Amino acid sequence: MNFFGLARRSVFRKPVKSILLLLIVFAISTLLLAGVASKNASVEVQDKTRQAIGAGFLLERNAEYRTKRVRECSEKIGNKEGSFGGYHQKKVVVNGSEGWSGSTTNEFETLDIKDIQKLAKTKGIADYNLTTAITAVNPVNFKRIEDKDVDQNVDVGGVSLIGNKDMKLDRNVLSGNLHIKEGRMITPEDKDMCVISEELSKQNNLKIGDKISFNDYHDTENSKVSEAEIVGIYQVDQKMSPLMQGDTYRSENVIFTDLRFPEKAEGETSPLYEKAYFKVEDVEAYDEVKENLQKVDINWEQYDLIDNNGNSETMSSNFNDLAKVSEMMILVISVASFVILVLVFLFWLKNRVQEVGIFLSLGVPKFRIIGQIWSEAIMIAVLSLMLSFAVAPAVSKVTANYLVSQQVQQMQEEEKNNEGKVSTEYVAPKQDVQNISVEVTPEMYLLDGVSVLVLITASVLVSGIVILKRNPKDILSEMS
Amino acid sequence: MLEVKNVSYAYKTKKDKTILNNVSATFEEGIFYTIVGPSGAGKTTLLSLLAGLDTAVKGTVLCNGEDITKKGLNYHRKHNISLVFQNYNLIDYLTTVENVKLGGSGNAEKLLEEVGIGKEYWQRNVLQLSGGQQQRVAIARALASDAHVLLADEPTGNLDETTADEIIALLKKTAHELGKCVVVVTHSKHLAEEADEILEIKNGAISFLSD
């Protein structure tokens, strides 16, 4: 009788130990599959989230190029006062010593609208937005929000305007920093329109349809007053990053306007477009669209094309945590499974020491005895794997849901801890996981099957060595 | 046939306690031997050395003139000897006939008939048989092997007198009719007296009482 025949008889005629091992291997296999599936599910969530928030690219002026241009313009003007290419040079005397002071016009600083329009036509770009620089202006017919405890001497006493071509693509909106509570956002067709914070609205009893006025804070008495109609009131979910210290730039005093309003309010004649955002139509084609953009014939030296990963990265990092948790789960299950299986087989062999002794006395080689034990374990494992494969999709979904809910809970707790704090840098937006898709693929089944078989083989070998290194006479003596 | 030559044995943990001291003996086919002696004298140790279950500190065990370690102790146990134990040592998840088949290529059913196990017991789980029947199955398993030497350690130790007599008769038959060398370790005076040759182990030495 070969060892396979013996193994088969042992498995079916000693059902209690077989069922015990079956349950253990079933649990190991199912948990391993759930871990692998959850790890994969996290990636899917990450992509879906990116699609939901709108993957895109941000275009900004390159800081080094600006410095280079300032230097070139200064050299052209020479050692005298004057202007060149939007750069003004003026002699100043500080503490008795002479020096040069430079200033720039909006034309010098702004993104080139022609370049933006060229880029917007690139294949794969669904939409685009232009955002002006944050513009400090004086509130004429309303009062801004002020913190009495803050020293306002260094502040210009104004509010901040952010002009947008299409407010729904503003960075603050995309990243979930705010949402419209009443009214609507700024659209490309708007002119002299604005959206204010609910705090500003409450303090000044302002409502949709009201008009508010601004002028240049440098000359609040004589400068031209510009008026904008309130079309929306927003609520802050995460405090927006202040540009600099002072209440002019605090979240509640930020007013979103149409694209050309800020220049009008501060008495300028040309706009200062600081950022352009290009929304990608299909996130799957993200890299391809990026390549297309970079091929557009513009002077790239003056721009930085930034992956719009502010939001995505945060999500990615959170769900990478999930992937790490899944990986940790797989590792812990693997190690624990190995230990448990070794103990099970040690216990198993200890109870079968008589059988081992009989086989040894019959001249059966040790490797054949190990082979029989291994065959028994594999037979049971195959059945366990079939069972675990059947329940894996459901268990994996439950596991992934649990792990994601833990992540979300953790994020919410962090959010709660940060409540009321004014951010000094970019704040992670509020994130809601809508749905988690978990798929158990054939590759995962294969990986799980191989892992379980490797675990069993290693466990049988380790436990087998412990028993079989003993002298046959000692085993037989123990029997008697 | 089977020979111990100048064999000494001491427990590895108690080196000062010598169990066998330079003993020699030869066991021939067709003869029924019993080994007697006080408890702890080394009877089972000698049987273990003959069976290749353990190795001597000094000296050699020869089978057909060849050192049993030469081809390996597993080979020796599989091809040269067969064993019968006091507690039968049958595999508990196998039937009667399957247990006999473990012994070798011999006709299991015929052997079971020869040792007096009726057909109605053949397909039963071996643990459902009585002690005497189990020992008969163990002997049938030993006979299923091609080995010419049958070594038994207290084969009647757990049996009543009548059953023990039947087992003794079976062992004698194995030696005299099947021409095998049967070596039995026993405390039983009755069993010892049935042997063709009686060896006594005492104080590490071996002597033939029947001479």
TrEMBL record, chain B:
Keyword annotations: ATP-binding, Hydrolase, Nucleotide-binding, Transport
Name the record gives this protein: Macrolide export ATP-binding/permease protein MacB
Isomerase among keywords: no
Annotated ABC transporter domain residues: 2-209
Name of the top EC class for this enzyme: hydrolase
EC number: 3.6.3.-
Coiled-coil segments on the chain, per record: none
Taxonomic path: Bacteria, Bacillati, Bacillota, Clostridia, Peptostreptococcales
InterPro entries named among the record's database cross-references: AAA+_ATPase, ABC_transporter-like_ATP-bd, ABC_transporter-like_CS, ABC_transpr_LolD-like, MacB-like_ATP-bd, P-loop_NTPase
Xref: Pfam families: ABC_tran
Family indicated by similarity: Belongs to the ABC transporter superfamily.
GO cellular component, one term: plasma membrane
Gene Ontology molecular functions: ATP binding; ATP hydrolysis activity; transmembrane transporter activity
